[in-house]
Amino acid sequence: MSVTGLSARERSLLPTDLPLALLDRNGIPVDDPALEMPADEVLLELHRRIVIGRRFDTQATALTRQGRLAVYPSSRGQEACEVGAVLALREQDWLFPTYRDSVALVTRGVDPVQTLTLLQGSWHLGYDPYEHKVGPQCTPLATNTLHAVGLAHAARLKGEDTVALVLLGDGATSEGDTHEALNFAAVWKAPVVFLVQNNGYAISVPMSKQSAAPSLAHKGIGYGVPSYLIDGNDPAGVYATVREAITAAAAGGGPALIEAKTYRIEAHTNADDAGRYRDSEEVAAWLDRDPLDRIERYLSTRGLLDEERRAEIQAEAEDFAATVREGMNAEPELDPAHLFAHVYAQPTKALREQAAMLAEELAS
Ligand SMILES: Cc1ncc(C[n+]2csc(CCOP(=O)(O)OP(=O)(O)O)c2C)c(N)n1
Ligand SMILES: [Mg+2]
Predict the structure, then answer these.
(1) Whether 251 and 269 share a structural domain
(2) In a domain, 75, yes or no
(3) pLDDT band at residue 1, thresholds of 50, 70 and 90?
(4) Is 104 in the pocket of ligand 1 (CB under 6 A)?
(5) Nearest ligand 1 atom, CA 264
(6) Rounded average pLDDT over 87-98
(7) Percent of the residues in the chain that have a pLDDT greater than 90, as a whole number
(8) Are residues 243 and 361 in the same domain?
(9) How far is the CA of 26 from the centre of ligand 1 (A)?
(10) Which of ligand 1's atoms lies nearest the C-alpha of 175?
(11) Which end of the chain, N or C, is less surrounded by CB atoms within 10 Å?
(12) What are the tens digits of pLDDT across the range 110-130?
């Protein structure tokens, strides 16, 4: 696309024509990259966390088949985003995830069983958001964008060095909340990074029916938000971009919008049949761009990843999966009265009446 006729400020906000990357689909470093390659320790940690995250994901999917989880939205294929973005966060930063981002949560250190509590249907939220600075996994699309901007703006007013990273999908960019969040993030120069995981679909709705924009990253320009278009299957590239955006936001540069082009390998959730709206050739083409293969190939070529380390990480991932199984197979201890807790600061009259009615019924 020609940028002739645009002002310098407009040009500075635009994403690149081609998605930015550090590693190509074969794990070979791209020529003349616009991003800085992360240190070797970071690359090794990206690899380790992706292996563990993927094992967690297959374990969670298996638990839905065993009736231990009500629903699970898999992020298989999207691990470069799930892991790359989270490892780029500093300890003091906040993460605002969606239902798709359980792997991001466990990468941040949230207990895996607590992570799955919501999807098990046994409690509103299984973890303490303050412990790891992770907001609740958001099911209403895009509402977390507003939470992230609110938190980031408040932190800035208080003089705290905190950046908020919000994860959202391609479909969520059509929600009004996303636009309100982008607008006020830019007006307030709030330190917030919007990472759109464009996985090609909003359930069965493909990108071609979602947006006519040249890219989702282009949506930033109308709000004055600088944008990046990146290869969302390159763990090194996702890490480097999110890190760069976080550093700029922390330095007072305001928000950034990143569109990461990726693909959801599994169905929307275990309740969806993806074969009804996409063909297997499309899936196969994306399997060929697998983020785990990519980083493995790069690290192996560099001599940083041998069979021994690979086996160690695999064993660690198996242990992690066993912990998840054990925790999820234990019957949750539930108090029906908790249904009414934490909904309102001051429960409404109707809720108080319902709670009393339930208590009476349980006592009889
Ligand atoms: C406000 C709102 N509208 C509709 C839905 C129903 N819904 C759940 S997931 C989904 C698709 C979201 O697609 P996308 O944002 O691309 O995220 P993905 O599931 O692909 O990660 C829809 C429409 C919802 N959860 N919230
Ligand atoms: Mg999507």
Answers:
(1) yes
(2) yes
(3) very low
(4) no
(5) 20
(6) 98
(7) 93
(8) no
(9) 32
(10) 1
(11) C
(12) 999 999 999 998 888 999 999
The answer to whether 262 touches 81, Cβ cutoff 8 Å, is yes
- Is the pLDDT assigned to residue 3 strictly greater than 70? no
Is 141 near ligand 1, meaning CB less than 6 Å away? yes
Instruction: Specify the pLDDT at position 339.
Output: 85
Residues near ion ligand 2 (Cβ under 5 Å): 169-170, 199, 202
Quote the ligand 2 centre to 325 CA distance (angstroms): 28
Question: In angstroms, what is the span from residue 203 Cα to ligand 2's centroid?
Answer: 7
Decide whether any atom of ligand 1 lies within 6 Å of the 203 Cβ: yes
Q: For the segment 263-318, what is each residue's pLDDT rounded down to a tens digit?
A: 999 999 999 999 999 999 999 999 999 999 999 999 999 999 999 999 999 999 99
133 lines ligand 1 (CB under 6 A): no
Query: Is 351 within a domain?
Result: yes
Of 141, 173, 180, 197, which is best to mutate to test ligand 1, by the most ligand atoms within 8 angstroms of its C-beta? 141
Residue located nearest, by CA, to atom 21 of ligand 1:
169
Does residue 274's CB lie within 6 angstroms of at least one atom of ligand 1?
Answer: no
- Give yes or no for residue 142 having a pLDDT over 90: yes
What is the overall mean pLDDT for the chain? Answer: 96
**Hunting for tokens 């932190």 — which residue is that?**
155
* Residues 57-62, mean pLDDT to the nearest whole number: 98
Is residue 2 included in any domain, yes or no?
Answer: no
Same domain flag for 244 and 362: no
Residue 39's domain is classified under what CATH number?
A: 3.40.50.970
One domain, residues 237 and 359: no
Range of the domain at 187: 8-333
Establish whether residue 140 lines the binding site of ligand 1, counting it when its CB lies within 6 angstroms of any ligand atom: yes
Q: How many structural domains comprise the chain?
A: 2
- Same-domain status, 149 and 171: yes
Same domain for 359 and 251? Answer: no
Instruction: Looking at the structure, tell me whether residues 221 and 345 fall in a common domain.
Output: no
d(CA 251, CA 244): 11
| C-alpha 272 – ligand 1 centre gap (Å) | 13
- Tell me: do 293 and 346 sit in the same domain: no
Cβ of residue 201 lying under 6 Å from some atom of ligand 1: yes
